[in-house]
Amino acid sequence: MSLTIGRWRIDRYERALYVQRQPNPRCLECMGTGSYYVAYAGDPQADEAVIEPCGCWDPFSSIRIPIGRTVITERYPF
Ligand SMILES: [Zn+2]
């Protein structure tokens, strides 16, 4: 489950929230996609297409906010 507020994306995974800044939608290098091609497919200089992440965001960093134990309030009646 993920939630997006502006440029911030919040994901819940196991017992933590991960907050990550997304690419700038007004970036002139990547046009808001977050990556750009260094070499296109079919380029004789490169064997394959090379895609680099844009400098307007860091896809490998996020803020981790641990959350406490989940309290189960409903139980099966025995
Ligand atoms: Zn960018």
Structure description:
The mean pLDDT is 88. 0% of the residues lie in helices and 37% in strands. The strands form two sheets. The chain has a four-stranded antiparallel beta sheet, with no helix packed on it. A two-stranded antiparallel ribbon has the order 4-5. Strand 1 (2-5) and strand 2 form a beta hairpin. 1% of the residues are buried. The protein has one domain (2-66). It has strands at 2-5, 8-13, 16-21, 35-39, 50-53, 63-66. It is built from no helices and six strands. With 78 residues, the protein is mainly β. The protein is elongated. It starts with a strand and ends in a 12-residue tail after the last strand. It binds zinc ion. Zinc ion binds next to loops.
Order of helices and strands: EEEEEE
Total number of domains: 1
Low-confidence stretches: none
Based on Cα principal axes, name the global outline: elongated
Number of helices: 0
- Residue share in β-strands: 35-45%
Radius of gyration: 19 Å
Q: Could you describe the largest sheet, including whether it forms a barrel? A: 4 strands, antiparallel
Hetero groups in this structure are: zinc ion
Roughly what is the average pLDDT, rounded to an integer?
Answer: 88
Which structural class should the secondary elements be placed in?
mainly beta
Helix content: under 10%
